[in-house]
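Teaching note: in complex prediction, the entire set of molecules is handled at once rather than each chain in isolation. The prompt given to students was simply: 'Predict the structure of this complex.' The entities are:
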Amino acid sequence: MRMYDLIEKKKLGQELSTEEIYHIINGYTHDEIPDYQISALLMAIYFNGMNVRERYDLTMAMRDSGDILDLSSIDGVKIDKHSTGGVGDKVTLVLGPIIASIGVPVAKMSGRGLGHTGGTIDKLEAFPGFNVSLSEEQFINQVNDIKIAVTGQSKNLAPADKKLYALRDVTATVDEISLITGSIMSKKLAAGTDAIVLDVTVGDGAFMKNKESALELAKSMVDIGKKADKKIAAILTNMDEPLGFAVGNDLEVIEAINALNGNGPEDLMEVVYELGSQMIVFSEIEKDKAKAKELMKEAVSSGRALAKFVEFIEAQGGDSSYAKDINKFKPAKYIIPVNSLTDGYVHAIKAESIGLASMSLGGGRETFEDVIDMSVGIVLNKKVGDTVKAGEALCYIHTNDEKKAKVAEEMIRKATVVSPEACDHMDLIIDIVE
Ligand code: URA
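The expected output is the structure of the full assembly:
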């Protein structure tokens, strides 16, 4: 099989066979096919796409390029949740303990933040001592013991994706549905759970900027998951403005703890209850989504969800006293308000710019080598649809460097729109694909 012929085939918009796709992925993973030929192929896929059969083969070939976790020794229906990325997205920290406290086994591999989006693994490191790299045995035992474990992605999980993603990143081929499907679903399938609930974010701070493309991606991933015999659903959620009020690592952890204490922002809780009820239905603990939401609310109001969170932090070696007393988190040196210049209604708080502003304060990373300042970020005081008076705070910048705050303030001002006409709050749940 000549790589030249396979590139030519895709360039002409023809279908690649299963054997050809495996040949490409195996060859690239083992350094037998050079970057320049894969780059050309990626661009041909970018323009001509892949049909469902090709996407499935691509996903399976990438899944098979490394280890596949065997979670069969965990009792019950194992469930994973994945977000395509957002700003202020602390859903896993709230959702995981709630549904684990109801008895749903949560076996989750998470990533670190990059660019304007945050990552769960970074946030969990807010708890001193928290171990984010469990062995497979520790991971399985912990889910069996307490129903929840969250670990960083193991090194040999879908190695083909690591190489391909790095190449897509420098060849302007990241934003193509078949390639995104293969990338996300290969890792989800290698992670070995029985069911997957996808949070496909839509809007300014998301990968997918509009509903049409998000729906296309959601359907593509659900198709592949079903073909691979998984229970799977995708929920499209709004990411035009940040989720909740807090953006930045410690700040988001504090908001998550408050949420587990029953004081969560409405939008965050709506997403948590929607995703969680789908996970509970998949687990077969409850068939009806509305009843599943009631179970979740009861887990929060009874304190069981917070107790599960504390148990989870302790099980992974973290200092849980921070979860019991949020005043233990060391605040940033300066808290600086960004005040509205006029009276009116908030029409936009563009999520991507807020994420980038938080990154400019040191709260995010441009490359995986960058070190994060856990204490910095932005806490919104207003959400889209709220009224605001001139001189009233739109948000607060938490910073250790006043110069950086000036840059962040400029970014926030550009990202925020206040105008006299009334404006609705944003709808959070945009669509559901099952
Ligand atoms: N997240 C991934 O893991 N892969 C993509 O291609 C896009 C988002």
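Point out the following to students. Residues 84, 165, 174, 180, 183-184, 207 surround uracil (CB under 6 Å). The domain at 333-419 is CATH 3.90.1170.30 (Aldehyde Oxidoreductase; domain 3).
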